[in-house]
Amino acid sequence: QVQLVESGGGVVQPGGSLRLSCAASGSVFSISAISWYRQVTGKPRELVAAITSAGSTNYADSVKGRFTISRDNAKNTVYLQMNSLTPEDTAVYYCKANKRGSVLGYWGQGTQVTVSS
């Protein structure tokens, strides 16, 4: 099994930056990809960014050029660097792990990001 813990959320002013972390534990060797999702209350959860075990990345159009997903394999951690934040980025951010040999995903509990003046 895989356990995920998000951290780094908080309150930031528009135009500011924030770095989220997703720390993985358990059977981390079997993780094929880590994704960041976000969800606003009352709205569907949406994919923000993803990174595979091979290092390829993918971004939603709404964050491309502003957000960067990266990983530190030694720390079993994936990061989401968020720059030029706007109020529209306000959401609960979740990380999700995909595991080789399984269709199921593993989710963290989420971290709140609030962009407000």
Keywords:
single chain, 117 residues, seven-stranded mixed sheet, four-stranded antiparallel sheet, 56% strand
In short:
The protein has 117 residues and is mostly beta strands. The chain has no helices and eleven strands.
Quick one: biggest sheet?
7 strands, mixed
Q: Which percent bin holds the helix content?
A: under 10%
Structural shape: globular
Integer average pLDDT: 96
Number of helical stretches of at least 4 residues:
0
Low-confidence stretches: none
Order of helices and strands: EEEEEEEEEEE
Strand content: over 45%
The Rg value, from CA coordinates, equals 14 Å
Helix-and-strand structural type: mainly beta
The count of β-strands is 11
Tell me the span between the first and last alpha carbons.
40 Å
Structural write-up:
By secondary structure, the protein is mostly beta strands. The protein has strands at 2-7, 10-12, 18-26, 31-39, 46-52, 57-59, 67-72, 77-82, 91-99, 105-107, 111-115. The strands form 2 sheets. Strands 2, 4, 5, 6, 9, 10 and 11 form a 7-stranded mixed β-sheet that branches. The protein is globular and about 45 Å long. The mean pLDDT is 96.
